[in-house]
From TrEMBL, chain A:
Record family assignment: Belongs to the bacterial solute-binding protein 1 family.
Pfam families assigned to the protein according to its UniProt record, in alphabetical order: SBP_bac_1
Swiss-Prot/TrEMBL keywords: Signal, Transport
Annotated signal sequence range: 1-23
Originating species: Phytoactinopolyspora mesophila
Top-level lineage group: Bacteria
GO biological process, alphabetically ordered: transmembrane transport
Name assigned to this protein: Extracellular solute-binding protein
Automatic annotation (TrEMBL), chain B:
Primary location recorded for the protein, binned into one broad class: membrane
Domain ABC transmembrane type-1, first and last residues per copy: 104-299
Name the UniProt record assigns to this protein: ABC transporter permease subunit
PANTHER family tied to this protein: ABC TRANSPORTER PERMEASE PROTEIN MG189-RELATED, ABC TRANSPORTER PERMEASE PROTEIN MG189-RELATED-RELATED
Annotated source species: Phytoactinopolyspora mesophila
Length: 456, 313
């Protein structure tokens, strides 16, 4: 859900613990393949009854989430099931929350029943045996409920670790006013994007096509869109390889922007960044469909200037997209109230049932196909984008996400060292390709040290 | 005056003549404590340090008068056209059902119980170590000195695991109890007690029939005033600014101290769907340091008298 800046220390602690428990869970993986898919509706009948029974009996649940729209969902749920008492706690965003979660897991107490976890961090907790496989409650029935990106993200090694909370199909947000002022067309391919970057700089040296100081989530999303699959994970067998075509084309194209100083040296999510988005210094932003909410609250001054367009393509005429961000709500093993059936009941309500609409109404971008195809949703006019029906762009993007992408089981650590390796391309003479190679080398070493078998 | 050839006169700048004559009598000692030698280099350096320490404060004040939009649309070290300080203060205090006030009260609670308790324990311990002899005193000394060297951050996670075992995490006790231990405060009180309280005084009190407790409260405690204030200031600042320990211990934002709360507000801006409230973060930071500054201004005269104690015999 969030694009938080990484904290190396927390990521390290996380990855270290994930690896410590690898031995314990490695053996389970082989046997449980496909269990989720085939069991739906048969052996799970008992568990489905258990969920019903848990709901009737009631009880307490603790949820850690920084998703603001969840508060209303909790309120509605409690109104419908007064016998259930839910404590919704904001234990910090992104990595802060993961650190807290990891501490609680180490201590073996104070673990919430449900936790909000971004897709890139899910496998890290799953490998540490900290998450409950909810296919035992029949979660496989939701195959098809969600768009492929989010659904693949919660499915790992035949288990289902949570239900998608939201998704982040990418789009190109651009400042229409700036493009109009200089008579430049909005790019539809990444080659045009580089051209537009040159034209913008030539027209006004204060205008940059984008800001970038090196962000792992962004580059990996571009590689995803280009069809690259640098990370392959099968249990503890991991392969990291940035030499595929997708990764190469991204590195080469983006390198031109760096070489010609066409990127504003501003780091995302800082006050400087908000300022750049507001005053026209940053002309485009390739981000997930969650961005409009941040535009509205963080860049109110530029209302009416910005629009959303499909992500530029790597090949002329193609229509490929990628996910950027997005998160799931997962049931923790050994949660405070040890009531997994009740936790599942809430999870289903919040992320597959009535809760989805509640969250959409408050501005969240869903991962559910049904809502993405809803006329009312698609025709919603965004006042901020001067009345544009931007959801049509986002929904189309959600359906065009290439399958087969996976994150590393130590992605938080990987992201935390991104700037020391790939990020060097932005500040020194190394190229992005060399940076990616350095990143790969560092990750292979780290992964092997942590007990994974990487590239062996 | 600069035309004068007498060294004392050159430094005199408007001082009465008596200074001039005394300077003549002791030509080598014309730089006294009251009239120190002026070094341009030192003055410049001090000036730099002054600017360095005041600019952030100035920035904080200036920017807390701006709206969210004004923050982005104006120069950082000067005011924006609309002066929104009062609106910002009101918004800060009322945003999210007035959670800021709750955080402020939490911080006060942690400071009063934590820093107050730490000072009390440090005074008792330091006094005992300074004025009583017992076996193992050297070992205690070594432990205290060692403890001063261990950063609190290093102990935070082990403390978390321990408190978790006791079921105290996510409660105010998890912040207050570790704060009670202040090795530095203990060491300071130890040194101060041994300087400030002559053993003869204690002997006299004992001869007069006072018990140890009444000696402590009625004879020694008044003498320890400046030392106590110093330790209190140190522990108070430490406890007021404490960030890492509460970060590790607390999950429920209704128990957050101001430091954590402000950080939570700040990270809202980097959260998807979160509201960016930089103006409230800045105004909140300003409000957060006001009590500390007030405490310093109120306590400094005790503190000053403490620093000069023992310098004149």
């Amino acid at each position: 859900m969030s694009m938080k800046r990484g904290h190396a220390s927390s990521a390290l602690a996380l990855a270290a613990t994930a690896a410590l428990t690898l031995a314990a869970c490695g053996s389970d993986d082989a046997g449980s393949d496909d269990a989720g898919a085939s069991d739906a509706g048969t052996g799970d009948a008992n568990n489905a009854d258990a969920v019903e029974a848990a709901l009737e009996e009631g009880g307490s649940l603790t949820i850690w989430s920084w998703e603001t729209t969840l508060a209303q969902v909790v309120e509605d749920f409690e109104a419908e099931y007064p016998q259930v008492d839910i404590d919704l706690i904001n234990a910090g965003s992104g990595n802060d929350q993961y650190t807290a979660l990891q501490n609680a897991i180490s201590a073996g107490s104070g673990i919430p029943d449900l936790a909000h976890i971004e897709y890139f961090a899910l496998s890290q907790f799953a490998l540490a045996d900290a998450l409950t496989d909810i296919s035992q409650f029949g979660a496989a029935e939701f195959d098809g409920t969600y768009t492929p990106g989010p659904w693949n993200a919660v499915n790992q090694d035949g288990a289902i670790y949570g239900l998608p909370m939201d998704s982040g199909p990418m789009a190109l947000f651009y400042n229409q006013t700036v493009f109009d002022e200089h008579g430049i067309d909005v790019p539809t391919t990444w080659d045009e994007y580089v051209e537009a970057a040159r034209d913008l700089q030539a027209a006004d040296s204060d205008v940059y096509i984008a800001n970038d100081t090196g962000e792992a989530g962004f580059i990996t999303s571009l590689i995803w869109q280009a069809g690259g699959q640098p990370f392959q994970v099968e249990g503890t067998e991991v392969s990291i390889d940035f030499s595929d075509e997708g990764s190469t084309v991204v590195a080469e194209t983006w390198q031109q922007l760096i070489d010609e100083d066409l990127l504003a040296p501003i780091t995302g999510w800082t006050d400087e960044w908000y300022q750049g988005l507001a005053d026209g210094t940053i002309a485009t932003l390739a981000a997930g469909a969650w961005m409009p909410a941040n535009f509205e609250s963080g860049v109110p001054g530029a209302a009416g200037d910005w629009r959303a367009a499909p992500l530029p393509q790597w090949e002329n005429g193609a229509s490929s997209s990628a996910e950027n961000g997005g998160s799931a709500l997962a049931i923790m093993a050994n949660g405070e109230n040890s009531n997994e059936a009740l936790a599942y009941a809430f999870l289903e309500y919040a992320n597959a049932g009535d809760g989805v609409q509640t969250k959409i109404d408050q501005g969240l971008f869903p991962g559910t196909s049904e809502h993405l195809a809803d006329e009312e949703f698609l025709n919603a006019e965004f006042e901020y984008f001067d009345g544009q029906q931007a959801n049509q762009v986002f929904a189309e993007s959600a359906g065009a996400v290439p399958e087969g992408w996976s994150y590393l089981p130590f992605q938080a650590y990987a992201n935390s060292i991104f700037n020391d390796t790939v990020g060097q391309a932005y500040v020194s003479g190394t190229t992005l390709s060399e940076g990616l190679q350095a990143w790969q080398d560092a990750l292979v070493t780290f992964g092997n040290d942590q007990g994974f078998s990487v590239n062996q | 005056m600069s035309t004068s050839t007498t060294p004392g006169a050159r430094k005199g700048s408007g001082r009465p003549l008596i200074t001039l004559s005394s300077a003549r009598r002791h030509p080598r000692r014309h730089h006294t404590v009251e009239r120190p030698r002026r070094s341009p280099l030192l003055t410049a350096l001090t000036g730099l340090v002054l600017i360095y320490s005041l600019v952030p404060l100035l920035w904080l004040f200036i920017n807390s008068t701006k709206t969210q939009e004004g923050l982005f649309g104006s120069f950082g070290l000067w005011f924006h056209s609309d002066f929104a300080l009062w609106d910002n203060v009101v918004d800060t205090l009322t945003y999210n059902d007035g959670i800021f006030v709750r955080w402020l009260l939490n911080t006060v609670l942690y400071v009063v119980l934590g820093a107050g308790g730490a000072t009390f324990l440090a005074v008792l311990g330091g006094y005992a170590l300074a004025l009583f002899n017992f076996p193992g005193k050297r070992a205690v000394f070594a432990i205290v000195i060692g403890a001063v060297a261990v950063p609190g951050t290093a102990l935070a996670v082990p403390t978390f695991l321990m408190f978790s075992e006791m079921g105290l995490t996510n409660t105010p006790w998890a912040v207050i109890i570790p704060t009670l231990i202040s090795p530095f405060g203990l060491y300071l009180m130890w040194v101060y007690s041994s300087e400030a309280i002559p053993t003869e005084l204690l002997e006299a009190a004992r001869v007069d029939g006072a018990g140890e407790f009444s000696t402590f409260f009625r004879v020694s405690l008044p003498l320890l005033g400046p030392g106590i204030v110093t330790v209190l200031l140190f522990t108070m600042v430490q406890s007021w600014n404490n960030y890492f320990l509460p970060l590790i211990m607390l999950r429920d934002s209704s128990w957050y101290p101001l430091t954590l709360g402000l950080n939570a507000w700040n990270s809202q801006a980097s959260t998807v769907g979160g509201e960016a409230i930089f103006n409230l973060v800045i105004t909140g930071s300003l409000l957060t340091i006001v009590p500390l500054i007030t405490a310093f201004l109120l306590l400094q005269r005790y503190w000053r008298s403490g620093l000069t104690a023992g310098s004149v015999k």
